[in-house]
């Protein structure tokens, strides 16, 4: 039986196969090293846009995603937010995303990009092998269907089976208690 928890960025990650770090805006060097060590040791991680923007003293990183650049194998060169009703289409599937960001890949494989940007993936999803593990970077807010499809691939690669319509029942989900 697997489990799902909320763990602090500097917490013990050794009991997990997959760590998701959504919008981890402020991160210290030791916290980033914790995630790097987890992946290097064979773990899988998903880091989303707006992570690694500032250090522990709230100073803006010289190059985003800050302390995660090496782990993710990317540098964000430009943020391009969209209005709430605007969307862009990714090239990997007829999926849409919000907020194309221009990236420079420093070893990461591009999984999805905004069409027309062959060298600089925008609105992209990247995958980077780091040590014995894998680090994914979501440089955009994917719509629900695209996010579900991506997370299905990520969890399968990490050997994690989610509970839901496609589950085999090996992961238990406990709903929150009502107060």
Question: Can you walk me through this structure?
Answer:
The chain is α+β, with helices and mostly antiparallel strands. It has a single domain, classed as 3-Layer(aba) Sandwich (Rossmann fold). It contains three helices and ten strands, in the order βαβαββββββββα. A five-stranded mixed β-sheet has the order 1-2-9-8-7, sandwiched between helices. The chain is globular. The protein starts with 17 loop residues before the first strand and ends in a 21-residue tail after the last helix.
Strand coverage percent: 15-25%
What radius of gyration results from the CA coordinates? 16 Å
Number of strands: 10
Query: Biggest β-sheet, characterized?
Result: 5 strands, mixed
How many domains make up the 3D coordinates?
A: 1
The first-level CATH class name = Alpha Beta
Could you say which structural class the secondary elements and strand pairing correspond to? alpha+beta
Query: Percent range for helical residues?
Result: 10-25%
CATH homology superfamily name: Class I glutamine amidotransferase (GATase) domain
Distance between the termini: 27 Å
Categorize the overall geometry: globular
What CATH architecture label applies?
A: 3-Layer(aba) Sandwich
If helices are DSSP runs of H or I spanning 4 or more residues, what is the number of helices?
3
Strand order of the largest sheet: 1-2-9-8-7
Q: Averaging pLDDT over every residue, what do you get?
A: 80
Give start-end ranges of low-pLDDT stretches.
none
What is the helix/strand order? EHEHEEEEEEEEH
The CATH topology turns out to be Rossmann fold
């Amino acid at each position: 039986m697997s489990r799902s928890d909320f763990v602090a960025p500097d917490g013990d990650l050794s009991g997990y196969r997959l760590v998701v770090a959504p919008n981890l805006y402020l991160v210290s060097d030791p916290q980033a090293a914790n995630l790097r060590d987890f992946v290097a040791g064979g773990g899988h991680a998903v880091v989303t846009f707006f992570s690694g923007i500032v250090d522990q003293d709230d100073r803006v990183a010289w190059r985003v995603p800050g302390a995660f650049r090496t782990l993710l194998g990317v540098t964000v060169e430009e943020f391009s937010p969209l209005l709430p009703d605007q969307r862009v289409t990714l090239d990997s599937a007829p999926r849409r995303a919000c907020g194309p960001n221009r990236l420079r890949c420093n070893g990461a494989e591009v999984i999805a990009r905004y069409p027309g940007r062959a060298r600089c993936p925008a609105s992209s999803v990247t995958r980077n092998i780091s040590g014995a593990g894998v680090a994914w970077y979501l440089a955009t807010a994917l719509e629900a269907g695209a996010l579900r499809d991506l997370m299905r691939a990520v969890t399968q690669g990490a050997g994690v089976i989610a509970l839901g319509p496609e589950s085999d029942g090996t992961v238990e989900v406990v709903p929150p208690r009502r107060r």
